Amino acid sequence: MNIAGIILAGGLGTRMGYSKKAFIEINGRTIIDRLLSVYRPIFREIIIAAREKDDFRDMEFTVAMDRFDARSSLTGIHAGLTKMTTSHGFFSACDAPFLQAGLVESLLSKVTPDADVIIPLKEDGYREPLCAVYSKRCLKFIEAQLERDDYKIIQFFEHVNIKEVPVSQLKQDDPDLISFFNVNRPEELANAEELARKKEL
Q1: Could you tell me which residues come within 8 angstroms of residue 185 by beta carbon, excluding any fewer than 6 positions away?
Q2: Bridge pairing between strands 3-8 and 46-50
Q3: What global pTM score does this model have?
Q4: 149, 156, 191, 170: which is closest to 81 by C-alpha?
Q5: Beta strands at 3-8 and 88-93: parallel, antiparallel or unpaired
Q6: Domains of the chain (ranges plus CATH)?
Q7: What is the pLDDT of residues 113-147, one digit of tens each?
């Protein structure tokens, strides 16, 4: 299946002092550059979902602008789904500096034409909505939800076909599941720096 790769880069970064997380450097590399190094070999179509197009004017990728005023991950998913030309898209947030290509490819291997959301399922029952695949069929349900000012991603799941992928099936390609490591706060950035040096990431 031809699947697009979308990077969600429209957040305010409030917990990081309003820093644009896509351009935060970890061990000398920005998070967006780290993500693109994973995306480029895998996806023919790469889209950056953003609030401010000028931030990415020097990049060769399509920028999908948020249509809704509220800033949320769901508005970014909506923008990416609207812009992509494929039936399905893989979405990652720009606060995930250690996304592993093997985990992405393993998740993509679970995609079937009839599945609308292909999402990692952790042992505690938590689903990872920002390291997941969504189909175009989700768009109308997301749009209706956003028009109600409801920004909880999993809220529309009851309307679509969900395929949960236990993380046990993904650990072969990412044993420590560092793909799910997020940088939202200064202390997490410090931890990311330490992890990057330790593991030479």
Answers
A1: 15, 16
A2: parallel
A3: 0.94
A4: 156
A5: parallel
A6: 3-199 (3.90.550.10)
A7: 999 999 999 999 999 999 999 999 999 999 999 99
